[in-house]
Amino acid sequence: MLSGQYVFHTGEELNRAINRMDFFRLFKAMSMAHGFSEFGLIELPPEIIDFRYSRAMALHSWPNLHMSEIDRKSKPQQDQPVAHLIKSTVAAVFLSDGADAGEPVSPLMIDEEPGCVVAVPLHTPSGKRYGLLLIGTQDKADYSDIGRISYEASLIFQRYYEAILSLDSMTGLTEREIQIVRWTAEGKTSAEIAVILKLSEHTVNSYTATVLRKLQVVNRAQMVATAIRNGLIT
Amino acid sequence: MTVNRPANSSIRILLVDDDPAEHILLSRKLSAISEPKIDLDFVDGIEAAVRHVQTTAIDIILLDNHLVPNNDFRETAPRLREAGYTGPIGIISSDITGSYFQSFPEYGADFRIGKDEIDGKAISFILEEFLKNMLPDECNDDTL
């Protein structure tokens, strides 16, 4: 029988997820349901040599973990779970015996204790590759659980794609995005737009960042100019 | 309205909840977080919350969904926005399964989370996610 926590991340809450906070909640619930303490969703480059956590980490549960520090201290070629994610389409388990056994299998295993990493390869419909890392302190892997973990990770990632990743590839701007561009064209700052639209400054900046990516520009001046040229605003 | 805050100061969270026990519970959860330093303010109603954001620099508001005698967040979150608060607002509730929760962005809220989901990891993620600069470096000083 499934526990309430188990149902949480594959039940109705999955279909309700609409922002990154919701997906943090889903992946966190999934990790805990399977006995893992941490998770990290990473975007994968084609080659392991190009992998950097500071660039790749899309969503994770480590508080105050500075990815650039991990990049500085570790070599991508020795990162077994990430190397596996890049070269395989099947989930795998990696066990670390702790400090006595030399280097941990993953630089994310910052405690020098025995641990377990499950690496689940994921991809978008367009073929962009991601991976989910689950990290716990188990000294043995429950291989019977791997299939279920893979399936649940795919379910949550598919929803993540629909709600978050696919937005950047949508053509045109949403009504809210057009409002943000119009007020920016009027010379308003993010804080002023937030007051006008009764939103948080974070939300205004989030919309602005999405528009910048959609229009493939790097600042507000280019954003407004491109929007006018494309007839998105007058 | 923007209330200026000294640089390098701690994070100030405002909990708006009509149950004082929630203040105690959240204080305990926040004590597990060593970095950044967090100050927790507490008020038990929306009127007090509106007054508070007009006089104090608040980084994040955690707003209980049902505040007696008000209705749900659809009534209270806009009050905070009308008061000029532009920081993140998170709706917290013991039950966030109601279909109306899907409309939280339309009412000026930034996220929703179940009270039983709030722990050190969730708080750390919220601080990281909602206090970071969403824009590329090229946009930092870029206004028209």
Question: Which features does this protein show?
Answer:
heterodimer, A: 234 residues, Beta-Lactamase, Arc Repressor Mutant, subunit A, 11 helices, elongated, disordered N terminus, B: 144 residues, alpha/beta, Rossmann fold, 4 helices, 30% helix
Question: How would you characterize this protein structure?
Answer:
- The complex is a heterodimer of chains A (234) and B (144).
- Chain A is an alpha+beta fold.
- Chain A folds into two domains: 4-168, Beta-Lactamase; 172-229, Arc Repressor Mutant, subunit A, CATH 1.10.10.
- Helices cover 46% and strands 14% of the residues of chain A.
- Chain A has helices spanning 4-10, 12-16, 20-33, 53-56, 67-73, 80-87, 146-163, 175-185, 190-197, 201-215, 220-229; strands spanning 38-43, 57-60, 92-96, 115-123, 129-136.
- A five-stranded antiparallel sheet of chain A has the order 2-1-5-4-3, sandwiched between helices.
- Chain A starts with a helix and ends in a 5-residue tail after the last helix.
- The relative contact order of chain A is 0.11.
- Chain B has 144 residues and is of the alpha/beta class.
- Chain B has a single domain (11-132), classed as 3-Layer(aba) Sandwich (Rossmann fold).
- Chain B has four helices and five strands, in the order βαβαβαββα.
- Chain B has helices spanning 20-30, 46-55, 73-82, 120-131; strands at 11-16, 38-43, 60-64, 89-93, 111-114.
- In chain B, strands 2-1-3-4-5 form a five-stranded parallel sheet, sandwiched between helices.
- In chain B, β3, α3 (73-82) and β4 form a beta-alpha-beta unit.
- The longest helix of chain B is centred in the C-terminal third of the chain and has 12 residues, at 120-131.
- The mean pLDDT of chain B is 90.
